[in-house]
Design brief:
A 7-stranded mixed beta sheet has the order 8-7-3-4-6-1-9, with no helix packed on it. The protein has a two-stranded antiparallel ribbon with strand order 2-5. 11% of the residues are buried. The protein has one domain (27-128). It contains 1 helix and 9 strands, in the order H-E-E-E-E-E-E-E-E-E. By secondary structure, the protein is mainly beta.
């Protein structure tokens, strides 16, 4: 009877370290937004220049994706008295970040901003405008 030997596979220690470390995991921050409209129809949109900025840090986590809202220059129509919800997905924050600001940096008035959002372990947040 013939014995079959399986080849031994070894993983480079540096690659293995990267696989099991936190750095290898793509972290994202999810911000679920609610906008309660008043008695008149509103138009809203998100600019690509929307960031998460950790308190006391100059690093900006970039906006990666959106759900249920339009990017500039398109508009999303919000009906009177509608509670409109949308989601923003950002690059991950640094491990030492304890709180951050959500800032839409735009060349006109009316940009979204929420200051001093406390960091949590899930990196999923709910904000109201």
């Amino acid at each position: 009877m013939e014995t079959i030997t399986k080849p031994k596979t070894e993983i480079d220690p540096e690659i293995l370290e990267q696989i099991v470390s936190d750095e290898a995991v793509e972290k994202q921050v999810i911000v679920k937004c609610s906008f309660k409209n008043g008695p008149m129809e509103q138009l809203i949109r998100i600019w690509n220049s929307t960031f998460l900025i950790p308190t006391g840090d100059s690093h900006k986590s970039k906006l990666l994706n959106i759900d249920n809202i339009t990017f500039f220059p398109m508009w999303t129509v919000i009906k009177p008295f509608e509670l409109f919800q949308f989601t923003l997905i950002f690059e991950g924050l640094s491990k030492d970040c304890k709180s951050f600001d959500l800032i839409e940096e735009i060349p006109q008035s009316g940009g979204f901003s929420v200051l001093g959002i406390p960091r949590n372990q899930t990196d999923v947040y709910h904000v109201e405008f």
